[in-house]
Each structure stands twice: as structure tokens, then as C-alpha cells.
Write a structure and sequence with these properties.
With 257 residues, the protein is mostly helical. It has helices at residues 2-25, 37-48, 51-84, 88-99, 108-115, 119-143, 147-155, 160-198, 203-212, 216-244, 249-256. Helix 6 packs antiparallel against helix 8 and helix 8 (160-198) packs antiparallel against helix 10.
Amino acid sequence: MRTGNTALGAAGLVGFLVLWEAVPRVGVVRDAYFPPVSRVAGALGTEFADEAFWTALGDTLTGWAVGLLIAVTAGILVGIVIAVVPYLREATSSTIEFLRPIPSVALIPLAVLLYGSELRSVLVLVVYASFWQVLIQTLYGVQDVDPVAEETARSYGLGTWARIRHVLWPTALPYVMTGVRLAAAVALILAVTAELVIGAPGLGQRIAVAQTSQAVPEMYALVVVTGLLGLLINVGARTVERRALAWHQSVRGEVAA
């Protein structure tokens, strides 16, 4: 079954590439604006040979990784603190619901005002967007804790830390891993967006430069790189999720299937 799905996925990719090559060749759209995939592949090879490209890739991955690490750490810690401190969930719910819907891109003027086009501006946007993904999933996971298990742990005299470790954390972990996977994708989106709009060093900045200089194949090549990067991050996040939840019924059932 898995081999069949892989074959279908490969066939779909080949069909997409053939269509991409054919559309500008037959004149459906002008190749000046939508170059065929063969030209984009050539530009991609040129980018791979350019040392500046790898520097930009490293800048993007740095902003993504550092921002994601901060967001995941803060989201988990804040979520657990809100869960274990009495009445704190009720006291913070309105504030969370007010701040969470604010689009991260709306903070771009503030980030530029504070830090200019430095890495810290990218981190402001990445952390803000990714933090909510982890926090909300952590809170959902805590809500799913079996009250009977919680009361049993209390009756056996387990302290706060022991209850977090043995009762709360195993229940919340599947939710937390979902939040981390979502946050990883959101962090990449915001990192590239910040570089594109603010001009911070990275792939987004190179895309903006290629667009303004009319280097269209190079621009598409860089967009393809960001897409491949997102795919790799998603695959990596799912792999980490499966390994972290190897004991969980959802993952064991998936492996068995």
C-alpha cells in the first residue's frame, strides 16, 4: 500500500513538472513571467554553485531554528504553568484570545522600529507566530488529562512535579508534538516573509532582489528551494513526532497499518 502511494505521488510530481514545462512553451503564459521548469532548473544549479546562496540558506535556517526553539520552550512552559496554577487559566483566557488572532505580519513595523533588518526582527515574528501554536496545543492536552488519574495521583501523595511528569505530560505530549509540527511550518513561513518584507539576510531577501532585478528564473528557483525546505521540515517534524510517540496508540496503530 505504501509503495503504491509513493508511486502515485511520484507520478503526480512528474505530471506537474511536464505541465510546468509545457504551459510557457505553448504560449499559454509568457515565459518572461513564467519560465519553463528547465530554465528554472538551470537557475537552481547556478544558485547551488553560488556561495552567497548557502550563506542566505544558513541565515534563514538560523532564524527558523532559533525562533522555533524559543517558541516551543516558552509555549510548553507557559502552558504547563497556566495548567497547574489554580484559576490562572480563567485569568489568562481573555488575554490569550485577544493576542492570538493578531497576524504576525502586523508586527513588522514594530520589529523594524525596534531592531531594523537584523536577525532579531525575524525572531520577533517567528516566535510570536509559533508560540501560539505550541501554547494552544499544550492547553488542549492538559484539558484532556483524565480527572480520575489526576485524583488518583493526588491520593497517592504525588507532588506537583510528579503529577506533571507521570500524569499531565504523557497525556499532553501528543498535543504538544502536533503544536511543534505546526509551529515548525509557521516558523519557516514567517522567517521567509520577514526576510522578504524587512530585507533581513536570507532566502527571502534573495527572492526580493531577484524579483526587482527581473531575474525571473532565479526568483522561481529560490521559491522552489523554500518549498523543498518546507517539505523537509515537515518530514523531519513527523519523524520526530513518531519517535517521541512510539508508545502512543495512534502511532502504533499507524505503524501496524
